[in-house]
Specification:
Chain A: InterPro entries: Asp/Glu-ADT_sf_sub_c (IPR036113), GatC (IPR003837). Chain A: It is an enzyme of class 6 (ligase). Chain A: It catalyses: L-glutamyl-tRNA(Gln) + L-glutamine + ATP + H2O = L-glutaminyl-tRNA(Gln) + L-glutamate + ADP + phosphate + H(+); L-aspartyl-tRNA(Asn) + L-glutamine + ATP + H2O = L-asparaginyl-tRNA(Asn) + L-glutamate + ADP + phosphate + 2 H(+). Chain A: It comes from Sandarakinorhabdus cyanobacteriorum. The complex is a heterodimer of chains A (about 100) and B (about 475). In chain A, β1 and β2 form a beta hairpin. The mean pLDDT of chain A is about 90. Chain A is mostly helical. In chain A, about 15% of the residues are buried. Chain A is flat. Chain A has three helices and two strands; from the N terminus they run αααββ. Chain A starts with a helix and ends in a 7-residue tail after the last strand. Chain A has a two-stranded antiparallel ribbon. By secondary structure, chain B is of the alpha/beta class. Chain B has an eleven-stranded mixed sheet with strand order 1-3-2-4-6-5-10-11-9-7-8, sandwiched between helices. In chain B, β2, α4 and β3 form a beta-alpha-beta unit. Chain B is globular, with a radius of gyration of 21 Å. The chains are: A mainly alpha (about 100), B alpha/beta (about 475). The interface between A and B is large, with 52 and 69 residues.
C-alpha cells in the first residue's frame, strides 16, 4: 500500500496539521518510504495471536469514585494562550 | 576540594555525609561547570537560584533524604513546578507547569538538588538530538585526531552530554525505544530503563504511553542504582504504575555472576555487524564467563520485526497523545487572520511541531485510520505479542541477556538524514522496550577512533537487581576510565 498526494492531504487534515502544497510531494515520498519499510510485518504469521495492548495484561486498576482534585481554576488556566472569566477562549465557533 | 564535579554520585553522598564539603559548594561547582560549557547546549534552562536554595536547605538541615544535596539535571520531558518544561518543542516554549511530575517529586522528596532542564529530541522522537527546537546538543566527545562535532545520541542527549561532561552528578532520562541506553552508550556513561510500570508516568510528557519509562543516567552502575531506587515507586495517578515494593538497589548491588546464566541472542549478531561492536560483545561474554556466569545461546526469532513494529505502535500512540497540543489549554497558538477554530488548530500544530514529530503524527494517523487499522496497528500489536513471547521463552533458559547497546559509536551531525537510517540505530534497544523489560547500558570500551561503546543487559520483568548486578560485573571487568 502506498499513499498518493490526495491521501497525504487527507492524513494532514485528520491530524490537524496545516500542510502547504509545496510540502506535499516531499511528505508523500517520506511517508511511502516509511510505510514500505513497516509493511514487512505483513509476512509474519500471527494467526491465533492476541494483539498486545499492554505489557501488563489485565493490570488496569479501578479507584474509588471520589473527587481527589479540583478547585484550582487559576492553575488550570495559567498556561492558556487565551483565557477570560475563568474559561479557555478560542476563536468564534458559532456564527 | 577542587574537582567536586569529578566525584561519582556515590562519592558525593559520602563526602556530604562526612561534611568534607557542603551541598552549596557542590552545587556551585556544578553551576560553574555548566556556565563554562554552554557550547554543548545540554541545558535548555538553568535554575541556579533554585538549586542554591535547595542546597542551602540541605546544609541547614531542613531538607534531607538519601539523595540530600546531590545535584541532578532533569530531562525537559518531566513537568517541574514553576520551571519551564517544553519536551524540546517550540509548541511548549514558555509552558510553566503548576505541578511536579511523579518521578521528580520522588527525587525532591529524597533531597536532590535540581540544576536545570536538559535538552532532548523534540517529544523524545530522535536518536541524535538533532530534532530539538532549542538546537542540537553536542557530545563532549571527539574522535581521535578529529575536530568534528558528534551527536550525544537521543532522545536523552542533553542528559547524556551533561553527565559525561560533569555538568551534573546524574540525570533523569526517559526511554521509549532506547532513549536512555543509546545516548548512555554514545557518551560512555551508564543508564537503566526499569520494567514498564516501575517509574510513574504522571507528569512526564507522553510520547508512546505503552512504552515510555523513566530511568536514571549516571557515571557508574552504583550511581544509577541510587537514583533508580528514588525514582521508582507506586503512583496511583498513573493507571499502569506497579503497586509493588521497590528494593534498595544500591544496598543490594553485589555484581556477583557466579551461577548466573547469561543468554546471548543469536539474532542480534546482524549481517554486516561492525567488527568492533562484535569484538566488544565477545569481550563482554568472556568477562561474564570469567566471573563465573554460564553462557547460554538463545534465540529471539522475531527480533528483525521489532523496529517496524515499534514504528507503527509508537507513532500511533504519539498521534493520539499529541492531539492535546491544539493551542487551547497550554502551549503556543497561531490563528491565521480571519481563521476559525479549525484553522487555528491546523496552523498552531503546523508552526509548533518540527519535521520528525509531524512525520510520526502523520504515520500514526494513517495506521490508525479506517481501512488500515487492522493491517497495520492490529498486526503490529500481534507481532509485539510474539516479540514478548520470544523473551519469555529465552528467560526460561537464562537470567539475563547480554547484547551490544548500539550498532555503532556516536556519529556526526547530519550523518543519518534518512529517517529509516536513524531508526536503525535503535535495533538492539527497541525489542526490550516492546516487551517492557528492564535494560541497561554500561560503558565497556572504546572504538578504534577513541569513542565510547556500550554493552546492554536485558533482564526479566522486575529484575532490575539482576540487570544492575550484571552491569556492575561488566563495569568492573571493563575498568572504563576514559573521559571526554
Amino acid at each position: 500500500m502506498s499513499v498518493d498526494s490526495e491521501t497525504v492531504r487527507k492524513i494532514a487534515r485528520l491530524a490537524r496539521i496545516a500542510v502547504t502544497e509545496d510540502e506535499v510531494p516531499g511528505l508523500t515520498e517520506q511517508l511511502n518510504g516509511i510505510l514500505g519499510w513497516i509493511e514487512q510485518l505483513g509476512e509474519v504469521d500471527t494467526k491465533g495471536v492476541e494483539p498486545m495492548a499492554s505489557v501488563m495484561p489485565g493490570h488496569l486498576r479501578w479507584r474509588a469514585d471520589a473527587v481527589t482534585d479540583g478547585g484550582i481554576p487559576d492553575k488550570v488556566l495559567a498556561n492558556a494562550p487565551e483565557a477570560t472569566s475563568g474559561f479557555f477562549a478560542v476563536p468564534k465557533v458559532i456564527e | 576540594m577542587s574537582n567536586l564535579t569529578d566525584l561519582s554520585l556515590t562519592e558525593m553522598k559520602a563526602g556530604l555525609a562526612a561534611r568534607m564539603f557542603s551541598a552549596v559548594e557542590l552545587t556551585q561547582a556544578h553551576l560553574d561547570a555548566m556556565a563554562a560549557n554552554r557550547h554543548l547546549n545540554a541545558y535548555i534552562v538553568e535554575t541556579p537560584e533554585l538549586a542554591l536554595a535547595q542546597a542551602k536547605a540541605v546544609d541547614d538541615g531542613t531538607r534531607g533524604g538519601p539523595l540530600a544535596g546531590i545535584p541532578l539535571g532533569i530531562k525537559d520531558l518531566f513537568a517541574t513546578e514553576g520551571v519551564q518544561t517544553t519536551a524540546g518543542s517550540a509548541i511548549l516554549k514558555g509552558f510553566v507547569p503548576r505541578y511536579e511530575s511523579g518521578v521528580t517529586a520522588n527525587l525532591l522528596r529524597d533531597g536532590a538538588v535540581f540544576l536545570g532542564k536538559l535538552n532532548m529530541d523534540e517529544f523524545a522522537m530522535g536518536s541524535s538530538n538533532e530534532t530539538s527546537a532549542f538546537g542540537k546538543v553536542i557530545s563532549p566527545w571527539k574522535a581521535r585526531g578529529s575536530d568534528a562535532e558528534l551527536v550525544p545520541g537521543g532522545s536523552s542527549g542533553g542528559s547524556a552530554a551533561a553527565v559525561a561532561a560533569r555538568l551534573c552528578a546524574g540525570a533523569t532520562g526517559t526511554d521509549t525505544g532506547g532513549s536512555i541506553r543509546q545516548p548512555a552508550a554514545f557518551v560512555g556513561i551508564a543508564g537503566i530503563k526499569p520494567t514498564y510500570g516501575r517509574a510513574s508516568r504522571w507528569g512526564t510528557i507522553a510520547f508512546a504511553s505503552s512504552l515510555d519509562q523513566a530511568g536514571p543516567m549516571a557515571r557508574s552502575v552504583s550511581d544509577c542504582a541510587h537514583l533508580l531506587t528514588s525514582m521508582c515507586g507506586f503512583d496511583d495517578r498513573d493507571s499502569t504504575s506497579l503497586d509493588l515494593p521497590v528494593p534498595d538497589f544500591a544496598a543490594g548491588l553485589t555484581g556477583a555472576m557466579k551461577g548466573k546464566r547469561v543468554g546471548i541472542p543469536a539474532e542480534y549478531r546482524l549481517d554486516g555487524m561492525d567488527p568492533e561492536i562484535a569484538a566488544l560483545w565477545d569481550q563482554g561474554i568472556a568477562w561474564l564467563r570469567s566471573e563465573g556466569a554460564e553462557i547460554v545461546s538463545v534465540s529471539l526469532p522475531h527480533t528483525k520485526y521489532a523496529l517496524p513494529t515499534y514504528y507503527i505502535v509508537a507513532p500511533a500512540e504519539a498521534s493520539s497523545n499529541l492531539a492535546r497540543y491544539d493551542g487551547v489549554r497550554y502551549g503556543n497558538r497561531v490563528t491565521p487572520p480571519g481563521g476559525n477554530v479549525h484553522d487555528m488548530y491546523a496552523a498552531t500544530r503546523a508552526a509548533g511541531f518540527g519535521k520528525e514529530v509531524k512525520r510520526r503524527i502523520m504515520i500514526g494517523t494513517y495506521v490508525l485510520s479506517a481501512g488500515f487499522y487492522d493491517a497495520y496497528y492490529t498486526q503490529a500489536q500481534k507481532v509485539r505479542a510474539l516479540i514478548a513471547r520470544d523473551f519469555e521463552l529465552a528467560f526460561q533458559q537464562c537470567d539475563v541477556l547480554l547484547t551490544p547497546t548500539a550498532p555503532s559509536p556516536a556519529f556526526a551531525f547530519g550523518a543519518k538524514a534518512d529517517p529509516i537510517a536513524m531508526y536503525l540505530n535503535d535495533v538492539f534497544t527497541v525489542p526490550a522496550s516492546l516487551a517492557g523489560l528492564p535494560a541497561m547500558s554500561v560503558p565497556a570500551g572504546l572504538s578504534a577512533s577513541g569513542l565510547p561503546l556500550g554493552l546492554q543487559i536485558i533482564g526479566r520483568p522486575l529484575d532490575e537487581m539482576g540487570v544492575l548486578d550484571a552491569g556492575l560485573a561488566i563495569e568492573r571487568a571493563a575498568g572504563f576510565t576514559a573521559r571526554p
